[in-house]
Write a structure and sequence with these properties.
About 70% of the residues lie in helices and about 0% in strands. The chain is built from 13 helices and no strands. The N and C termini lie far apart (about 70 Å).
Length: about 250
């Protein structure tokens, strides 16, 4: 005898498989026409709801393919002249939330294992449309930049509990993308961002063993902050009393 509960489970599984198959088909279509910017723009209103669903707990079976589609679309269909379509920007906060979760989620969100793919997405959004990255999105109270900084902080906190520090290496690529693409445009946020990097640098070099690649990424991030605005960054480092420490560690690391 088949119970109603079994029927419900079967229906849920079938829906999940159908959603995953749908996103796989979309990925193949997007890959096939990735050089056709007009074609990609035409199908965007159709695929957007499916992509958003793939970023929810109900769409986890399709999340891998969904992130691939987002990356392919932003990388091939967008540039600094046209920017990233507003509807695609709606996906960015959801991507950050599913990885980082809320402040009380010690281990991050329900899809923390997709941190690497999400960070590549964020880098592409920044590279292709840095102007919009500084704006407040529809239905939001904070800019995408402010959301991204909070996202970085959350991941660094989670990273501090681990030993391999690979999550820290990954998230610092987002920091570098922000600093590289927005020179002299985020001066108001540099004290906070550089202060965050200095705190991580101090722990990495003074609090016992720390993987070399994480130390290297921290130093690269500091270097990119100097590129972003050298006078402001160097003044922050000096005000924090970290000038000797930063540069001695930097030269010693070479």
């Amino acid at each position: 005898m088949v119970t109603d509960d079994n029927d419900d489970e079967d229906e849920t599984e079938e829906r999940a498989l159908a959603a995953a198959g749908c996103v796989t088909a979309i990925r193949r279509i997007v890959e096939a026409i990735n050089k056709d910017k007009e074609g990609l723009a035409t199908i965007l209103p159709i695929i957007y709801p499916i992509l958003m669903h793939s970023l929810t707990p109900d769409g986890l079976d399709a999340i891998d393919e969904g992130l691939d589609v987002i990356n392919i679309f932003v990388y091939y269909a967008c540039d600094r002249t046209t920017g990233v379509p507003p509807v695609m920007w709606k996906l960015l906060p959801q991507m950050m939330y599913m990885v980082a979760g809320n402040g009380d989620d010690v281990d991050g969100g329900y899809a923390f294992e997709y941190l690497g793919q999400v960070c590549i997405c964020i880098q592409n959004f920044i590279n292709k449309d840095p102007r919009t990255f500084l704006l407040v999105g529809e239905g939001q109270t904070e800019t995408f930049f402010e959301l991204a900084v909070k996202f970085v902080q959350r991941v660094l906190v989670i990273n501090s509990h681990g030993t391999h520090k690979q999550d820290g290496v990954t998230i610092l690529r987002v920091v570098i993308a922000i600093l590289e693409n927005l020179p002299r445009e985020i001066d108001h946020a540099l004290p906070h961002m550089v202060g965050m990097l200095l705190a991580e640098l101090k722990m990495a070099f003074e609090n016992g063993p720390c993987p070399k690649n994480f130390k290297a990424m921290l130093l690269q991030s500091i270097a990119m902050a100097i590129f972003n605005n050298n006078s402001v960054t160097l003044r922050i480092i000096e005000n924090e009393g970290q000038t000797f420490s930063v540069f001695s560690n930097w030269f010693g690391f070479m």
